[in-house]
Specification:
Shape: elongated
Distance between the termini: 43 Å
Keywords: Coiled coil, DNA-binding
Order of helices and strands: HHHHHHEEHHHH
Largest sheet: 2 strands, antiparallel
CATH architecture of the domain at 68-149: Orthogonal Bundle
Biased composition (Low complexity): 10-22
Domain HTH marR-type: 41-177
Helix content: 55-70%
Protein name: DNA-binding MarR family transcriptional regulator
InterPro entries: HTH_MarR-typ, MarR/SlyA-like, WH-like_DNA-bd_sf, WH_DNA-bd_sf
Length: 195
């Protein structure tokens, strides 16, 4: 049993190591790379993995604490930012932000209103529209729990110099572009084997 646990731990600790994930260089040609650089990149990938795990744990704890789903939480965050910026949030703006249909938005708002998280008001300048705001209780609960934990990202970034921040921004933007599915035909096909 101990050997099985050791093997599992060995695999788990190497999950982001490129030499373990792609030993033959089929995905990433490392033949011209310095072994130290390969090791550092693997360490960076492992750090990103730890960040994703921390974000996932925070997300799950947030959802459980607030008793909401991911879309509900995104809607509440949008309402907090709208309120902070003095922007009137409408169902249409919420639908656009969440990339969901107006029918789904109506269901979402009904659910949030029943739970006491939002208030629907007449729009002050458009009689055909509604204005949506977060309740003070939900705003306070979100800010004192999830918001406070999320704000620690800013504190971590504040520890970097201006030059380091530029490097991190450039790296993250480049990685985002590399991971984009815009040119990935397999992702556009919808299901495995349908291409």
């Amino acid at each position: 049993m101990a050997a099985i646990d050791e093997n599992h731990e060995s695999v788990s600790s190497s999950i982001y190591d490129v030499d373990s994930s792609d030993p033959t260089g089929q995905l990433v040609d490392r033949s011209a790379m310095d072994p130290t650089q390969v090791r550092q990149i693997s360490e960076l990938m492992a750090a990103l993995g730890r960040l994703r795990e921390a974000e996932q744990q925070l997300s799950e704890a947030s959802l459980k604490y607030m008793k909401l789903n991911q879309t509900d939480m995104r809607a509440l965050h949008y309402l907090i930012v709208s309120g902070n910026r003095g922007v009137i949030a409408t169902p249409g703006a919420i639908a656009t932000h969440l990339k969901i249909s107006t029918a789904s938005t109506t269901k979402l708002l009904d659910r949030l209103e029943r739970a006491g998280h939002i208030i629907r008001h007449p729009h002050p300048t458009d009689r055909r529209a509604l204005a949506i705001s977060i309740t003070p209780e939900t705003h306070t609960a979100a800010m004192n729990t999830v918001g406070r934990q999320q704000s620690k990202r800013f504190l971590a970034a504040a520890n970097l110099t201006s030059s380091e921040l530029e490097t991190v921004i450039r790296f993250l933007d480049d990685m985002t572009g590399q991971l984009s599915l815009a040119d990935a035909e397999w992702a556009q096909a919808g299901t495995a084997g349908s291409a």
